[in-house]
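[job 0412] stage=fold_complex status=start
inputs:
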Amino acid sequence: MNPRKIRMVVGRTAGCLPCGYLIVRAQARREINIRLNNGRLENIATSSENGIGIQAFTEKGACGFASVNRISDAEAVHTAQKAMELAEENENTGCELNREIFGAPKIFSEIPNKAVYGFDSFTPEELAELAGGIHRQLRENGSEKSEISWQTNFRLIEDFWCVGRSDGTLVSFFIPRAVLSHQGTVKEGGQAQSFSVNSSGVDAGVLLDERTSGALLHKTIDKAGFVQKVCTAPLLPVGSYPLLIDYGLAKGLAHEAFGHAVESDLMEESILGEVGKLKTGLVIARPDVDIIDGPLEGDWAYQPYSANGLFRETVHVVQNGVLKQGLGDIFSAAKAGMPVTGAGRSEYFGSVALPRMTNIRLVTATHIPIPTSDGLTEEISRLRRGLQDTGLLGEGFHILLLGYRGGQVNTRTGDFVFQCDGAVNLADSKLPVYRPGIFSGKILSVLDSVKLSLGEARYDAIGTCGKAGQMVPSSGGGSGYILLDKNENVKLGGNTVEQSA
Amino acid sequence: MSSLLDQILDVLRKAQAGKHMAGGLRILDWRITCSQTQMITLGIKNNATGGVYSPPALKDSEKAEIYLIWEDGKCSRSVVQNPPPGRKDYWQTELNGWRAAAFEDKYAAKIPEPSEIPDVGIAEQKLHDIVCRDHSCLFEQQGRIRADEPVEALKNGQIMAIWGKSNILTSTGIQAAFEESRYAVSWSFDSIVAEGFAERRLITAEEWLGLWEESVCRYRLLENQGEPVRSATKVILTPAVVSQMIDQYILPNFRGENVLERQSRFTTQDFSGHIPLFDQELTIEINPLLPGKWASYVLTNEGVPAMRTELLRDGCLETPYLNLKDAGRFGAGPTAIPYSSAGIRVKHTRKISWKDLVGTIEDGIMILSVLGLHTQNPVTGTFSLTAPCALRIKNGVVAGKTDVRINGNLWDILRREDTVYADHPLYNHPYLMFHIPPDNL
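[job 0412] stage=fold_complex status=done
writing structure:
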């Protein structure tokens, strides 16, 4: 359905009921998925889904939600009525009331699709051919040393969102996304490990760029070489170490350890809250450390407006080492003692919006520049030299962690974990590689260890966040490799029982 | 306008007969899996029922997955829904789009022939009535979660009921229409203790009471401080953690495509040789024929009738789970598909009851939940996990909370003959007890 018609349906529906309040959220999504496996085209799948989700509020503030995967005036009005009926039924059961949306500012905005190549600029067959060529190059270059199983995926997504409200608010925006990823499963010395490397953008330009530059290919081959070493490497003994983490891990740290803990709906049980309010002013890091969350245009997790139709602001979660601001949506920001920052996001039209991160980054004012390297091995050597030259290299063990593999947090207990692909001991001039155990720590103490950053800033580490079962794109990074002092509350490792693959 | 299914059938039959063409080509064979679903959810967040983040919600959807084989042998796969109003050229445009996404895959170009469809109980009329008529009983359940002991806990919870109708039709003559239901409830106290139930039927009063008491008991016990663990302390994984382990290790490594593409711990030769890799008393199977179970089904999405499949029998690898395409590549017939960890059954000839086992544990640590399991290496089976919610067991008595880290390897645990498997009538997966020294956190 075309965006103009969707805007019209949403606008009309938002004002269709005589009393109460409606948030009407429509989505039109198209997607192409191409998967290649060890030289074969495994699958091309296409999908398109449109739908509308409506959150209705009674005058007292009780709410109900209904959704349908069809967009028409009749369906939308029927869905609004069902949502309002549920809101009224909910009110009769003594539900929690919330009237914050009645005071939200009215906004009118229309953001066009900024992708250079439209979703239909290339046929699926042409995209598959481009992806196939890139996959072939990978196989030709990537299986020299050992048995590696290669998979290449390309996803092209065009998401159109339109949010209307009873106050006349009507905002719509496109989120075009594309990602090319290579996944390798390395089997070496009786061990095995899989890894993935990706490159994201807004359109098929991701494929064209890669065809020209081969940047992802080089990164992948480098990573494969590293993972091969990790497979046969010893396990890092359990312990606390001085650390250097890459930008993907910096994103993981900021996302798991801080981002979730300052989301306004989680404040009642967050370790960064007190009696349900954000502990604003809490000194949590050294004075030159910042954590910032906000949308970046063209980014994987870009979203210019919230799912409730409010402007998405850039937020300094931590500024100069002090906890400053949370990720507040219209419903719980005031209760959580923070301003509304338009943080509400939904997985799809049938999901209720929750406060979520977009692009979160860990930034230090103190920064040591490192010359750009051609490959990972050279980069590791330059990092060692950079630390050595500035007198920052630890003795015995100074562990570099590479490759974020995901993480998890319990915001109530303050425990967080994440895993990486491999570790290198920078303190040893031979730069030995280790298999790492899980990285675990406590929210309240880890940031205190962050000292400075080295090398190039990168904010395009992408992933998917699964809060409350809703999968939304997430991204972020760091102002370089992040240096962390040894901290007894941050541990690495495990005496994993050896088992051949 | 006719139903989505009718519209797709019309366009596919015309495309088969050459009345509609795309790129000058006809469709040779097709499959449609069409589902209409109505779902109601209720929730509790931070002790409040029906708030803005967990309002009562009704979700209505109708969509279809289509799979086409064109006369040049290429295949197309797409998910479609009802067309927007007033688009007369919609289906021809879609047909052109499907053709544009067609690709060559000799193994995938297959539609199954009709065969006997098993009678599996996957729909409960009570759930139809709840979803489509009167959902007051769900509001009552929501009220109970909020009001029952422990009143001091910060509670979160969700209740979900689903009713659906599915149709699977193929050009080879499969015409299956069936109804299905699902129900799930879960709750947590202080985000520390969680419990849940998910089947194709409503929970019984006894099951509710049993699960609630279990979670309250664990919550109370976590208020006590447990002793630190020792190197001799045995580790006990609760069924919830075992379920996560199945998701992380069993499902990906037994997936046919992963085995064929060397992305699994196992090779095709491992299966053909029936090598005893695990405890010889251990069997792991998929059984979608069990009535009322969450992962039970009548036909797979591809139209393959439900059947029982042993992935591992008496410690030997039997088969990966195979869809039609992977079955062709593997040189075997298609198998049952697990869809989630709920589809996997772990059987052991010496399985005992949890009630009998717990009294015999002199020194143990019961892991209620772990952080970061999804980040672990699925191929090697290794894990290194923090467990900030674990209960110490001393001399047969569950005592207090001890925070631990567990490091191990699931394949090793399943190979060892001293691993103990214990059943509990309220859970689909067993407790697993083994000895791998845990670390105090």
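[job 0412] summary: Chain B has eleven helices and 20 strands.
[job 0412] exit 0
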